Amino acid sequence: MPADEILIAEADIQSRLSELAAEINEALPEGPVHVVMILKGAIIFGVDLARALMRNTTLGFLTASSYGEGTQSSGKVEIDARHLGDLEGRNVLLIDDILDTGHTFAKTIDILKSKRPASLRTCVLMDKPARRETEIQADHVGFTIDNHFVVGYGLDCDEAFRTLPDIRIYAPE
Ligand code: IMP
Ligand code: MG
After folding, report:
1. Could you say which of 17, 36, 61, 139 is the most buried, measured as most Cβ atoms within 10 Å of its Cβ?
2. What is the pLDDT of residues 12-21, one digit of tens each?
């Protein structure tokens, strides 16, 4: 298997998730929160985190494609915001799987801000700072990792491995 090496175990993801939920709850204003996740990579983390908040939560979705095939970025980001929901005057939490070059997050944040939310906080499961090409940072980061291409817990390589319960290093055979 090209994804045998576990980088972050399932139990470690789950315990960090509880810490993140507490951290985010502290930072968010009281009341309902609109959770926006970037498909498809954030879907598993995003839903787990949204549930761990134990709040009155609504969900919105964006689709972003920056990686073409395999592990190489295509360089351009395409965003579909049709299922974002209404953000105006609401407290919004944006969730993504991984912050890599930062282009996806930067473009997404611009779109969300243009919808005039009352507040906006951002969270990523993983951060790969070595790859950053923008000034972007997330308010809440689950794990800072070295420059590996990783799969599992929502993250894919050519659509495979998303449903693994842990995060693994992808090493082509
Ligand atoms: P960015 O625009 O370069 O920051 O890319 C962000 C998107 O690329 C993430 O939302 C992921 O979908 C994808 N991506 C970046 N690094 C990885 C990785 O190591 N494994 C799988 N997908 C990744
Ligand atoms: Mg992806």
Report:
1. 36
2. 999 999 999 9
